[in-house]
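Structure (tokenized):
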């Protein structure tokens, strides 16, 4: 049976977040929770990490199907 898993990662970017909001977002599967103003270096690093995770997930899924 094939399952569909979109190759996306969810980011939360907020200007009014709380620790509880972050905890809930992560429990629901958010890849990252960033607060404004976000440092461009941190945003860039987070995007790179998300891309790397997507790539790893695709590779792992390919190995499972063979």
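Design, position by position:
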């Amino acid at each position: 049976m094939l399952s569909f898993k979109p190759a996306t990662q969810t980011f939360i970017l907020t200007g009014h977040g709380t620790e509880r909001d972050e905890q809930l977002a992560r429990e629901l599967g958010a890849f990252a929770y960033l607060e404004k103003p976000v440092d461009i270096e941190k945003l860039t690093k987070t995007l790179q990490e998300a891309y790397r995770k997507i790539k790893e997930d695709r590779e792992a899924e390919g190995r499972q199907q063979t």
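Reviewer-requested clarification: The longest helix spans residues 40-65. The chain has one domain: 11-65.
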